[in-house]
């Protein structure tokens, strides 16, 4: 589901957003999430936007009615008493959209409330995946919106997640002002991958899969064929396709194409290279193929993506 679906909440007044901090107040995950939202609340005023930050003990006694509620934690080893944890999760789930950030994603999955939901789990917690693979669908993305469920891998991605929420809840003008105040040039999109997630999850168990992805990442401008990649990692084409389908739910060719398009989008937003140059730098010899593939993945054309950068 697109984060644009959250824009419907912007018409609700006041918009109430709850952040439950189950970790340290000075942790990057918490600071990166709360600061942009606090700035948005200050700009819009309490009649339009109310940000409520609470401890787990406080939220149990709070008056519900939030549009968004998130459980935030930076340390998977922290625990809450079972009774308190159940009460906190019940409160969070009363919101229109709810979920977790950082280790909060793992806690919600372990509680059994994310079954069948795509979630962005922090790569550092991938060692715990055996206990939740039947309770959530793990992605390598920075953050996710699946139905009513929000998740973010935390750390530095918390800032991108918060600014994405600001854009859709408060508008691009408010987001641009906060970006300027925080000296942030680009907000990473939700579908960008955690760079270490694949290695952390599969590096030891599936070294050839990890090696194949590394080959893709280092050969963007002149893409290799699926057969070439299979030969280089010592597998047949069918074996490679089976690995990608089993562990990444994708074919090698599709995964490779998305890597190249992600890189193209980054270049469109961060550089002044022409659209034609960007296409060539990402392995597209045909401008029409580049535009069609880009639109199919992102929902807009490379030209529209570049215009969005210029508008900002």
UniProtKB/TrEMBL annotation:
Coiled-coil region list: none
What molecular function terms (GO) are annotated for this protein? DNA-binding transcription factor activity; sequence-specific DNA binding
- According to the entry, every stretch annotated as the HTH araC/xylS-type domain falls at 210-308
Q: Which gene encodes it?
A: cdhR_2
Q: What is this protein called?
A: HTH-type transcriptional regulator CdhR
Which key words are in the record?
DNA-binding, Transcription, Transcription regulation
Q: Which PANTHER family match?
A: HTH-TYPE TRANSCRIPTIONAL ACTIVATOR RHAS-RELATED (PTHR46796)
């Amino acid at each position: 589901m697109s984060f644009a679906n959250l824009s419907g909440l912007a018409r609700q007044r006041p918009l109430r957003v709850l952040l439950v901090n189950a970790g340290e107040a000075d942790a990057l995950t918490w600071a990166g999430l709360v600061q942009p939202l606090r700035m948005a609340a200050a700009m819009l005023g309490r009649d339009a936007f109310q940000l409520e930050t609470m401890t787990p003990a406080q939220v149990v006694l709070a008056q519900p009615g939030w549009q968004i509620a998130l459980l935030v934690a930076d340390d998977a080893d922290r625990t809450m008493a079972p009774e308190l944890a159940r009460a906190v999760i019940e409160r969070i789930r009363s919101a229109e959209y709810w979920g977790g950030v950082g280790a909060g994603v793992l806690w919600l999955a372990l509680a059994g409330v994310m079954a069948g939901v795509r979630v962005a789990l922090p790569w550092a917690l991938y060692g715990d995946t055996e206990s939740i693979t039947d309770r959530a669908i793990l992605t390598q993305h920075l953050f996710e919106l699946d139905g009513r469920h929000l998740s973010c891998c935390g750390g530095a991605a918390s800032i991108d997640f918060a600014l994405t929420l600001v854009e859709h809840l408060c508008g691009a003008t408010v987001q641009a002002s906060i970006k300027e105040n925080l000296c942030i040039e680009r907000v990473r999109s939700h579908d960008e991958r955690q760079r270490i997630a694949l290695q952390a999850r599969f590096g030891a168990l599936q070294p050839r899969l990890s090696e194949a992805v590394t080959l893709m990442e280092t050969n963007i401008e002149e893409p290799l064929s699926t057969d070439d990649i299979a030969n280089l990692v010592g597998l047949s084409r069918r074996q490679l396709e089976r690995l990608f389908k089993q562990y990444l739910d994708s074919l090698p060719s599709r995964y490779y194409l998305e890597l190249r398009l992600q890189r193209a989008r980054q270049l469109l937003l961060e550089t002044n290279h022409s659209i034609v140059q960007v296409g060539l730098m990402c392995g597209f010899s045909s401008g029409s193929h580049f535009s069609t593939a880009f639109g199919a993945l992102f929902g807009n054309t490379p030209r529209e993506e570049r215009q969005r950068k210029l508008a900002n």
